[in-house]
Design goal:
Pfam families: Rib_5-P_isom_A (PF06026). This protein is α/β, with parallel strands linked by helices. It has two domains: 133 residues, Rossmann fold (3-Layer(aba) Sandwich), CATH 3.40.50.1360; 75 residues, Alpha-Beta Plaits (2-Layer Sandwich), CATH 3.30.70. The protein contains six helices and 13 strands. The strands form three sheets. The chain has a six-stranded mixed beta sheet, with helices on both faces. Strands 8-9-7-10 form a four-stranded antiparallel beta sheet, covered by helices on one side. A hairpin with a 5-residue loop joins strand 4 and strand 5. It is globular. The two termini are 25 Å apart. The structure holds ribulose-5-phosphate. Ribulose-5-phosphate binds next to helix 2 and helix 4.
Length: 232
Amino acid sequence: MSDDLKKQAAKAAMQEVRSGMRIGLGTGSTAKHFVDYLGAEVANGFECLCVPTSEATAAQARSLNIPLTTLDEIDALDVTVDGADEIDSNQVLIKGGGGALLREKIVAAASAKMVVIADTSKIVDQLGAFPLPIEVNKFGLGATTNLVKKIMNDFKAQGDLVLRAGSDGQPFETDGGHFILDASFGRISDAKALSSALLEVPGVVQHGLFINLCAAAYLASPEGVVTMGETV
Ligand SMILES: O=C(CO)[C@H](O)[C@H](O)COP(=O)(O)O
């Protein structure tokens, strides 16, 4: 996806925020543009209180003087704007390509509205071509991997399960100190059943299927930005 399309989606989603709002800040290259646009507004007097979904987004927001808080200080947000790896026609998402899925899901669930920004290449008929990120506890990694593989088998996955590596070749560690298994399903025909099965594995902390969380999406294409769901 071109950086220009990411910017267009991020800019269009700025219409979702109003001065005085409590805003969740997503993670990833598209969300980064949204944070840049928000930072420019803050410099012009826009008031907000924001919760970042990753240390990377927190650092970017601080550099732009965007006021930050936590979900300990406040317990609810007005809106969260975040990217996605896949979105289907029911606005079910796969997220976690950037490794921030746990905090992203906590923040989205604490928000009155979750807004997705992406380009139209992220729209899919069926979820699953993008490997599903599954955040797992380090303890018992081998046992957890085996249980997840069994679920992949039950759900007729067409690909492998891979422990995500960082740029240093070592296992990628999330902000919460967990590992990520990337599960290539190929196609996911029952996201709810898969979600339930994965969450029954004790070592699974969370997975990247976002069900009933995304209320609206701004999706940029070379022809313009199309929307899904309840945009303002
Ligand atoms: O879920 C995410 C991070 O955990 C990202 O929002 C998702 O991977 C999309 O990223 P990008 O905007 O860079 O394509």
